[in-house]
Amino acid sequence: MTRTWSQSRYAPDRGLTTRMVTTMFLIGLLYVVFVGVLLALLQNAWPVILLIAGVLFVAQFWFSDRIAAFSMGAREVTPEQAPGLHGSVDRICALADMPKPRVAISDRDIPNAFATGRNERTALVCVTTGLLRRLEPEELEGVLAHEMSHVAHRDVAVMTIASFLGVLAGFMTRAALYTGLGRNSRDSSTAIATLLIPLVSAVVYVISFLLTRLLSRYRELSADRSAALLTGRPSALASALTKVTGEMARIPTEDLRRAEPFNALWFAPAFSSKESLSRLFSSHPTLEQRLDQLGRISAQLGRG
């Protein structure tokens, strides 16, 4: 019998499931309201609005994993090309009793990893060359277990859809303004729509941003917890977290800025230690929160 991600041995997280369902409901409601407002303000442009909304949503859902992998320079590797990395992935799959994802390497010095894929057929786990150079085998397996739990819990797909609304708001607003406004310049409703559409778009973006950040921080804690319980070595994951976070301060600022747009996918956010203010709306919990949770899990496993 072929195992699936949903049948894996990763510990289920009802808190994560509840948050994902709630976030998707609120995002969906926000999406419907946003489209409705555009249709009300730009009645002549409703076919274009609906077409753009549908096409962009489908494209994001089906191709987001490929876009993310391409943007971060992920190159799929075979067991012959990266035997050590594949061996670690194989051991995690054996522990979790689940299908093996595709394995990739990104030629970046930033020590990090990410997972993408809306289901087991498109799942991909990628690590950077910087991570491979800096971590011990047990630490690497902890990171891989963390990333693979994201796909097992399907929060990768949820985050992809949820984070898309802000982008979609911008695209649709531009298209609506170009196609629906300016044709009836003497109409007073045009001036009202010109003022309201940017305002509505800004509100939609802010709300969707806050919702995705709240979910993102929880899902990272959930992945840490699931990986620690699966491998039985929370100390190895804690060591990897400490090492990766510490190394970020040594990465050139220019490289960190290029990686920053993908922070929601990374194992650890691409921030240097001097940029603490920028963590106010971070996609990840603080290092202290993550280490504190792993410390509690280690104590529980020790008592067990």
What does the secondary structure layout of this molecule look like, with pairings?
Elements (H helix, E strand, L loop, with lengths): L13 H28 L4 H26 L2 E3 L6 H14 L5 E5 L6 E4 L7 E5 H6 L2 H16 L2 H26 L7 H44 L2 H15 L4 H7 L27 H17 L1
Parallel strand pairs: 2-4
Antiparallel strand pairs: 1-2, 3-4
Helix pairs in contact: 1-6, 1-7, 2-6, 3-5, 5-7, 5-8, 6-7, 7-8, 7-10, 8-10
List keywords for this structure.
304 residues, Zincin-like, 2 domains
Description:
With 304 residues, this protein is mostly helical. It folds into 2 domains: 13-69 and 155-215, no CATH class; 76-153 and 217-303, 2-Layer Sandwich (Zincin-like), CATH 3.30.2010.10. It has 10 helices and 4 strands; from the N terminus they run ααβαβββααααααα. The chain has a 4-stranded mixed β-sheet with strand order 1-2-4-3, sandwiched between helices. Strand 3 (113-116) and strand 4 (124-128) form a beta hairpin. The protein is elongated, with a radius of gyration of 21 Å. The model is unreliable at 273-277 (pLDDT under 50).
Largest sheet: 4 strands, mixed
Stated plainly, the CATH topology of the largest domain is called Zincin-like
- Specify the CATH architecture of the largest domain: 2-Layer Sandwich
Give the CA-based shape.
Answer: elongated
EC number: 3.4.24.-
InterPro entries: HtpX_protease, MFS_trans_sf, Pept_M48_protease_HtpX, Peptidase_M48
Membrane topology: Multi-pass membrane protein
Subcellular location: Cell membrane
